[in-house]
Each structure stands twice: as structure tokens, then as C-alpha cells.
């Protein structure tokens, strides 16, 4: 083999190796679920998290990572969720000297490890992804400072405890996996009682009201009418069977009339 042939062969091999390595180095840049189709949240059944040496080895940084589920009215963290309620999510990664931060998280029902609720309205540099049927919220690009936000619709009633699992990375910005830092975190929320002040146990329609939202679970299609306590009709809506969440434009006490198609009429007195 001539020296020119040797150089061309090894140069080509080097280029191929570089192409193969780049996805590993850059996977954190645009989110692990998007780039690798991997769930590295640390949840049961997930792929190994980013602390292994093939990803971001624990190096120069010892980051802190907090997961907060927030009441949208008070911006305060909660430890108990109301079924069907919309909450804020805040993921915060911090490490002195780090130049970029990233994260990936999911929320699961403890009893069966199914998706808990729904993620929505991702904030700046945040995206919603799915890996093997599991919902994921993660960074869409490395950020500084490491504050990432989204919203979460809590699951339906009787779901039980919910755990958020997350992984985070503090990076030095050298476009390599060396010298970075990883930390995982999880928090568990218990299920609280909806602010429903009237119910019809065992009936085909169950209604929950909280903070301006109605959540209706129905085994049949139905027609619902919402009145103020003074008797003014403010909503008329047809719903299908299943779960329906509806924003309500009033505060205080209202009266909901649910007419099952071909069935009974149920009256609920609700606190919004």
C-alpha cells in the first residue's frame, strides 16, 4: 500500500468514526428523546441515564436539579394534585461554572406506571416528545440559565399517587461529553379531593370542579347546561362518553344540569 493510499484509507475511516460519534456528543443539545429516541428520565423501565461514560460522565460539575409542580394562581409548589386540574411545571438545573443546561422528565401513575395526565404548552427551549408510548418533556436546546417550564393536566380521579422522574445535565460547552455533570431527581404527588361540593356516586356521570375547570366523566353522550346560582344559563354543550375538561368563565358557586341522552337528568351544585 502506498503512503497516499494509506492516508486516504485512514482519513476516510476517521471521517466515518467522527460521523458515528457526533450523535452521541450532540444528543443532549436538542434533547435525548428527539435525537436518540431514548427515555433517560430514570423512571422504571427507562434507558440508562446520562451519567454513564457513553454520554455525560460526572466530571467538573455537581449540579442541583429541582422539579416543581405549581399552582397557576399562586405560583407555589404543590404536593397534592386535584384530578383534571392544570398546573405549571418548572425544572431548574444549576451548577457554578456550567455554560449550558438540559433536562428530560416524565410523569407516571405509581400503581401501573402508565402516563400520568398530559403535558402541554412547552415554554422556551422546551419540547414534548414520546418514546415507546411514554410521554416526555425535555429541553429543545441547551439553555442558560437552566430554567425550563411547561404545563401539566393532572390525571383523572382515582389515579392515585403520581411520580415525576427527571434527569439533568450541566455542560461546559465544549461540544463533547467530557467534563459535564449529571443528576437525577423524582418527586411524588398524592391525589387530593376535587373541589366538587355535590356528587351522585354510582351514576353514569361524575363531575369535578376546581379553579375554573369542569372535568366530566360520562359513560354516555350527554347535554350539559351550566347556570349561575341566580339561574342565568352561561353554557350549553353536548359531550361524548369518556373524559371531558371544560374551562368555565365564572368564580364562586354554579349549578350544572346534565341530561343523559335517553336517561335521567342530574343536578350538581359546584364550587369553582
What does this structure look like?
The model is unreliable at 1-28 (pLDDT under 50). This protein has helices at 3-30, 32-36, and strands spanning 64-70, 80-81, 86-94, 100-109, 118-120, 126-131, 134-139, 146-153, 162-171, 181-191, 205-210, 213-218, 222-228, 233-239, 242-247, 253-260, 265-271. It folds into 2 domains: 27-191, Sandwich (Immunoglobulin-like), CATH 2.60.40; 205-271, Immunoglobulin-like. The strands form 4 sheets. The chain has a 6-stranded mixed beta sheet. With 272 residues, it is mainly beta.
Order of helices and strands: HHEEEEEEEEEEEEEEEEE
Distance between the termini: 82 Å
Q: How are the strands ordered across the major sheet?
A: 2-10-9-4-7-6
CATH topology of the largest domain: Immunoglobulin-like
Could you state the CATH homologous superfamily of the largest domain? Reeler domain
Q: What is the C-level CATH assignment of the largest domain? A: Mainly Beta
Name the beta content range: 35-45%
Unreliable spans? 1-28
Please summarize the sheet with the most strands.
6 strands, mixed
Helices, by number, come to 2
Instruction: Give average pLDDT, whole number.
Output: 78
What count of domains describes the coordinates?
2
Rough shape? elongated
| Total beta strand runs | 17
Q: What Rg do the Cα atoms give?
A: 24 Å
Percent helix range:
10-25%
| CATH architecture assignment name of the largest domain | Sandwich
Helix/strand class: mainly beta
Task: Map the helices and strands.
Blueprint: H1 3-30, H2 32-36, E1 64-70, E2 80-81, E3 86-94, E4 100-109, E5 118-120, E6 126-131, E7 134-139, E8 146-153, E9 162-171, E10 181-191, E11 205-210, E12 213-218, E13 222-228, E14 233-239, E15 242-247, E16 253-260, E17 265-271
Parallel strand pairs: 2-10
Antiparallel strand pairs: 1-3, 3-8, 4-7, 4-9, 5-8, 6-7, 9-10, 11-12, 12-15, 13-14, 13-16, 16-17
Amino acid at each position: 500500500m502506498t503512503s497516499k493510499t494509506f492516508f486516504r484509507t485512514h482519513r476516510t475511516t476517521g471521517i466515518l468514526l467522527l460521523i458515528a460519534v457526533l450523535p452521541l456528543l450532540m444528543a443532549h443539545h436538542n434533547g435525548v428523546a428527539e435525537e436518540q429516541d431514548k427515555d433517560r428520565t430514570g423512571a422504571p423501565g427507562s434507558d440508562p441515564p446520562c451519567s454513564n461514560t457513553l454520554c455525560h460522565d460526572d466530571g467538573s460539575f455537581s449540579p442541583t436539579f429541582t422539579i416543581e409542580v405549581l399552582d397557576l394562581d399562586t405560583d407555589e409548589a404543590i404536593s397534592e394534585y386535584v384530578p383534571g386540574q392544570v398546573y405549571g411545571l418548572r425544572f431548574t438545573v444549576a451548577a457554578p461554572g456550567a455554560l449550558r443546561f438540559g433536562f428530560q422528565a416524565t410523569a407516571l401513575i405509581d400503581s401501573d406506571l402508565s402516563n400520568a395526565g398530559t403535558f402541554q404548552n412547552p415554554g422556551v427551549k422546551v419540547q414534548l416528545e414520546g418514546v415507546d408510548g411514554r410521554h416526555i418533556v425535555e429541553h429543545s436546546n441547551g439553555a442558560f440559565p437552566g430554567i425550563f417550564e411547561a404545563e401539566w393536566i393532572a390525571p383523572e380521579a382515582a389515579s392515585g399517587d403520581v411520580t415525576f422522574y427527571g434527569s439533568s445535565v450541566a455542560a461546559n460547552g465544549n461540544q463533547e461529553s467530557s467534563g459535564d455533570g449529571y443528576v437525577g431527581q423524582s418527586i411524588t404527588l398524592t391525589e387530593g379531593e376535587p373541589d366538587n361540593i355535590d356528587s351522585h356516586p354510582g351514576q353514569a356521570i361524575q363531575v369535578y370542579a376546581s379553579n375554573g375547570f369542569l372535568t366530566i366523566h360520562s359513560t354516555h353522550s350527554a347535554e350539559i347546561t351550566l347556570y349561575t346560582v341566580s339561574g342565568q344559563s352561561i353554557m350549553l354543550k353536548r359531550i361524548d362518553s369518556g373524559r371531558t375538561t371544560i374551562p368555565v368563565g365564572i368564580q364562586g358557586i354554579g349549578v350544572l344540569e346534565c341530561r343523559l341522552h335517553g336517561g335521567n337528568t342530574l343536578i350538581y351544585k359546584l364550587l369553582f
